[in-house]
Amino acid sequence: MDTLWLDTLTISEIIDQFPKGTIPSNVRKTRVGLYEALRAFAPDVVKQIMAPIIEAKRERVKSTVTERRTQERHRKRPKATLVTAEGPLPGLAERMGDPRDPLRFMEVPTAEEKIGCHRDFLNATSNKALRQSICASCAREMFSKEVTELEIEDLPNPHVLHPSKPHPAHHLTNGMLLEGKGIVSNGNRVMLCSTCLQSIRKGQ
Q1: How far, CA to CA in Å, does 104 sit from each of 96, 108, 174?
Q2: Could you say which of 59, 109, 158, 196 is the most buried, measured as most Cβ atoms within 10 Å of its Cβ?
Q3: CA distance to 16, 72, 82, 88, 121, per residue, from 99 (Å)
Q4: What secondary structure does DSSP assign to 114-132, as a single string?
């Protein structure tokens, strides 16, 4: 099954579309394991299940890009002012600056607007924007921009990460049970998602 079209979604977004218990818990941490589990379903069934959220995400991206282009247009395009023998026509300059004005139908975009579109596209699809990290607390894989990197020594309330029932198979870091892939910088820093970091700060 071709899974390239699923790469626009996070692991959590994919799992949430299936009934509870459908996706085994042991394959939820990585895309490789999750995609392997999805191959047990007919491709058409998977596409039918995922179609609504993919379309919704496309609409959100489209809406965001449109909003940014509108803001760029308002910010960079000088307002047109028509002047008659009696002086400027009142209200016309403001109306000409409105992108919804029918007088601007099929207007050619400016060089600045084209550059802005290219910049937005590159920013949204660059390696930095698409880089993923793993939360050291919940082990979820998500975009790096969605996690916070902290010094292990600076973790608030580290006791909440201590296992309630220690087990010989646990690999503890300063007494904390952490996902190894979420530990970086030679074991000195950890990556935490906003949800886990908020809970840890509350001592939960």
Answers
A1: 7, 9, 63
A2: 196
A3: 39, 11, 17, 20, 21
A4: HHHHHHHHHHHHSHHHH-E
**Does residue 95 register a pLDDT over 50?**
no
Among residues 192, 113, 195, 105, the alpha carbon closest in space to that of 155 is found at: 192
Q: Please name the residues in contact with 166: beta carbons below 8 A apart, sequence gap of 6 or more.
A: 172
Query: What does pTM read for this prediction?
Result: 0.41
Q: What's the rounded Cα separation, in Å, for the pair 145 and 129?
A: 7
How many other C-beta atoms can be found within 10 angstroms of the C-beta atom of residue 36? 13
Average pLDDT on 133-158 reads: 90
Residue written as tokens 């099954």? Answer: 1
Query: Residues 103, 104, 106, 110: is their CA dihedral positive or negative?
Result: positive
The tokens describing 145, both together, are 């921009």
pLDDT above 80 for 90:
no
